[in-house]
């Protein structure tokens, strides 16, 4: 048992509010169908659980979203992809919801999504290999992600959140015993947890290495491109943010390819190509542009002309301007 004063799992996020999370417990049955077996993970907007589908007698993964009145974008993207019904080959590398429903919690409504189970993410696999993936695994990973993105982009979907922790090892038929072992372990050797007056906070159980094909997951920040229209606005994690987004330009599926390049670096080096600093001020942005220039050279003049924001850092001829020197020693 964990001391109730110690913060664990989702409680460690800045701005954590317990009432926003659904107080799930092991053994609970959702939607008269999905029995919770063990906790697999957590995030700022959800908790993840291994469940047993009591109707079809199989394991599935349940994502319990925090309380919200807004529609779940991932569900919208799933319905969009299902409506297209195109055969591409990349759809098997995308993890989409199999079922969705809502559950009423003590403080409001929670959206729930159900998926095929998957294994550990690439960051966890990097830890197993002590920081560097074998070349064959790295090559297979990037190839699978590119095929997955080919399918999304042909379907007019931009993922916007390609990074190692959104790439999961898959499970095949030979991995069923892995899930049985997780379920049995929860019975014989329960994970540490702490009991509070209105909920139990569980620690997550680690997935072992599995051998199924990789899947790109988490379409929660994805966007659908309308015909002949690009997107705009702030997107992508700081460390993977594309230049178009940094300069407040319109952007399209090419931002995913930028993120793939940085992901490829992260999987080789277990770190970010560019430091994962806040990007809140003009000085923060100037530092990031200088880092990009040091590796890639100055941006094309035609590219800068697409953004009025670029005039903060370059003049109308594409030369860097004071007070932000973008030259790198």
From TrEMBL:
Xref: SMART domains:
S_TKc (SM00220)
- Give, as one word, the top-level EC class: transferase
Catalytic reactions of this protein: L-threonyl-[protein] + ATP = O-phospho-L-threonyl-[protein] + ADP + H(+); L-seryl-[protein] + ATP = O-phospho-L-seryl-[protein] + ADP + H(+)
Record keyword Nucleotide-binding present:
yes
> What's an example Gene Ontology biological process for this entry?
regulation of mRNA processing
GO function term, MF aspect, one: ATP binding
Kindly give the Gene3D superfamilies that the UniProt entry links to this protein. Answer: Phosphorylase Kinase, domain 1, Transferase(Phosphotransferase) domain 1
Q: What is this protein called?
A: non-specific serine/threonine protein kinase
E.C. number: 2.7.11.1
The entry's keywords: ATP-binding, Kinase, Nucleotide-binding, Serine/threonine-protein kinase, Transferase
Annotated Protein kinase domain residues: 34-329
Q: Which Pfam family, any one, appears in the UniProt record?
A: Pkinase
Which PROSITE patterns does the UniProt record give?
PROTEIN_KINASE_DOM (PS50011)
The keyword Amino-acid biosynthesis is assigned to this record: no
